[in-house]
Task: structure prediction
Amino acid sequence: MNKYIPYLFGLFLMGAIVLLLATGSSKPNKKTLDESITLNKQDKIPYGSYVAYQDLKYIFPGATISENKYEPGYWDSLSKYEDKQALIILSTRFIADETEMKKLVTFAENGNDVFIASGYFSSIAKEMMSCEITGSYNSLLRPAEYLDDSLRLNLNNSLFGNPKQFNYPGRTSSNYFSSFDKALTEVLGYNQNSQPNFIRLRAGHGNFYVHTDPFAFTNYFLLYGDNVDYYEKALSLIRPDVKRVVWDEYYLLKKENRSQANRNNNESKRGWLSALMNVQNANGDKSFGAAFVVLAAILLLYVLLNMRRKQRYIPIVKKPSNDSLDFVKTIGRLYFDKADHKNLCRKMASFFLDHVRSKYKLPTGNLDSTFVNKLLEKSGAEAYNTNEIISFINSFESETNINPAQLIQFYNQLEIFYNTTG
Result:
């Protein structure tokens, strides 16, 4: 029966996983709004900019439309020496440094337009545009349920006429221009609190158009009601005889590369276990994570129940007895009972010398003082007792009879030698 336990265990686990996945997929399909903020011209999600990019060819029918992924001054679609060009920058973070801002200013001064819509501007960008922006970039990243659920925008009536408010029930930015150089700046639009969020900065023969709410150019906003009119009116400020309109992705990619690096770093720290636990099915449920928890619990239970190792009973093996010694003692008692003491001494001496030859590798042909010294050196036995043994072996053959006292003394001397040398 025990050999079938692993198979039964495996079938049970497979059944549990299938059951969890089945119950997870049985829930009704729920369509949820994709809250990802990409502002990418290829993304058709609510906060992508596919509509804004595709609409450029209708707003500027006489211009060539292209994209750019290079830093200012290194464009392949724009010339910093020509005029009648427009650069459109849409990003959650406009993190231009001093060198980039100088090149953008030079580009505008040569008779070109730079349109920027972003929720965050670097310090050097605000300094060179002589403006201050109030608000928090973190408001762009918070979950939608914690934000104002409606964006409402207005354009300057004196420029566009026919006052109309544009709104949609989606994300919004709370940023606005709190101060600016009125000699160089013209307010073009306001947020729901009548605070300026869209301005024009004159730069030589060109202009900077700066907007603090990038959500006003997302798919969700433009496709809601007639909000595409807001986009078309905002871009109508760009000179109508523009020859080239370039959609810039440099600052978008600059931001995304850093965020992607952070995400990759976080993924590597999380490790494979966290990645497995967060695998979702088509409905967004983490069924695999639940199945993994059940599997871990079952494995833990299996280990706890089998912590006591099962093995056969091992019998106690008694220490083997010295049969040779017992045999010698038996023979010795036999000779002793027959009173053949000399023959018994001969047997005991023969056994002793055989023991010396086998254990200490000493020849026993000549039992002289040299032999005794070598035996004492190798065995560590008592010198006096050993000399008495060798002396008796050399002399007892010349004796006519060996009395019991001599036999017992010889026996005791041998026992002392054996016990001493182990």
Summary: The chain has a mean pLDDT of 82. The radius of gyration is 51 Å. Residues 250-277 form the longest helix (28 residues).
